[in-house]
Amino acid sequence: MTGQLVLAALAGIATIVILIVWVKIHPFLALMAGSGVMAIAAGVNYVDLFASFTTGVGNTISGTGLLIVLGSIIGTLMVGSGGADAIVDTILDKTPVKRLPWAMALIAFVIGIPLFFEVGVVILIPVVMFAARRAKQPAILVGIPALAGLSVLHALVPPHPGPLIAIDSLGANLGMTLGFGLIIAIPTVILSGPLLAKPMARWVPVRANEDFLGAKGAKEGAKRPNFGVSIFVILLPVLLMLARTIIEVGGWEGSAFGKAIVFVGTPLIALTITAVVAMFAFGYTIGKSRDEVNDLVGSSFGPIAGILLIVAAGGGFKETLVDSGIADVIADTLVSWDLPVLIAGWLVAVFIRLATGSATVATITASGIMAPIAAGLPATETALLVLAIGSGSVFFSHVNDAGFWLVKEYFGMTVGQTIKTWSLMETAVSVFGLAFVMVADIFI
Q1: In the prediction, which pLDDT does 193 show?
Q2: Least packed by Cβ within 10 Å: which of 83, 247, 263, 281?
């Protein structure tokens, strides 16, 4: 029976890889097909073929999916109001030319908290090209720090889809994971961004791509929120969720004040509060009408439809793994290899990432496989396991990753140049991320 379940897992994962990489099927359909193949191979009655899958889809949408939607609303309001521009312009105006790589890493780190990776890239590319042209420096010197900031946030920090999926699958504490993620993200961005960008700029000295020096989010001349307001809105959900964790760790959740903080620090409530605050700060208070704000909110749903479907299907795939007993068998196998649990989670995510090119699919699959092991871990190590899996999910982006081609085209590089810069940077993010997770595990 154990052998059958292992083969079922391999068949399901192989189906996903083949459909995504060679057949070029959308990951949603690939995950659904992989779940079906895995269930059949595991001996599930065909009548119940997708019972676990649909349960997982529903649970994921009701939990992680709602958080992704709220995060998209906040990010869209920030961009559409010019709040992102206010942050970028304020930091750039106060930055000497020689510090531009560090400034770009800081900008990406800040605005990357509420924005999905692809959205952050689209926003920052004109800024990167403008800064590189102004400083008369290679675009890579300024661009890699920005990409590193976005990638690290995407892999390690909620409310990005990957960390949220892993937190839900492994039963980790969101506030604790968020706190550890931010701490680990800072040195990871520094090493894989501004410091690594210097030799890369010598290897690939491409200049600013003039095609991407266009306008940014808000209309020219429109009133926009100031820097302080924009930063406050971005950091509000982070502060609320961290406050809840502090209350819980301190054992103060029984008091009236503690109960209130725990409530507002619940991820769904924290992001809902922030979305309402964003509607005022990025809308009504700068003169936008109710219809304009509603239009911005409505426009935030379309771009995340594909992400929601992939995440939901991933939840279904994970549920199939768990309900069929496959996850338990794989977990037992990993335990028998006597690998440290954090390294095991990282390696599983790396394998799926290299095979499929998708960080989200890598996180979903690795989290489902590691879930039985996580059940017996202390809260701190479960949070670090989330971060280890997140680090593994971005390892060596190459030609099967849409992000690879996005960066290649924006910077006007060849495939070889993109591997020397973007792919190497992603690998550095993954390895440094794991290294700092392991260091944190020693001291926490």
Answers
A1: 97
A2: 263
Neighbours of 254 (CB within 10 A): 9
Residues 161-190 pLDDT 10s: 889 989 989 999 999 999 999 999 999 999
CA separation for the pair 364, 260 (Å, rounded): 32
- Strands, DSSP E only, in 269-401? none
Give mean pLDDT, residues 383-396. Answer: 97
Cis bond upstream, residue 205 (ω within 30): no
- DSSP secondary structure code for residue 23 in this structure: S
Instruction: Tell me how far apart the alpha carbons of residues 381 and 391 are, in angstroms, rounded to a whole number.
Output: 15
User: For 423, which DSSP code?
Assistant: I
Quote the CA–CA distance of 159 and 70 in Å, as a whole number. 9
* Strand ranges for 36-172 from DSSP E: none
Q: Could you tell me which residue, 362 or 193, shows the higher pLDDT?
A: 193
* Sign of the alpha-carbon dihedral angle for 56, 386, 306, 12: negative
Q: State the Cα–Cα distance between residues 153 and 269, nearest whole angstrom.
A: 21
- Rounded distance, CA 127 to CA 269, Å? 33
User: Tokens representing 387?
Assistant: 């971060």
In the Cβ-directed half-sphere of 133, how many Cα atoms lie within 13 Å? 13
**111-115-118-120 Cα dihedral, nearest 10 degrees:** -20
CA distances 212 to 96, 208, 229, 422, Å, are 23, 8, 28, 18
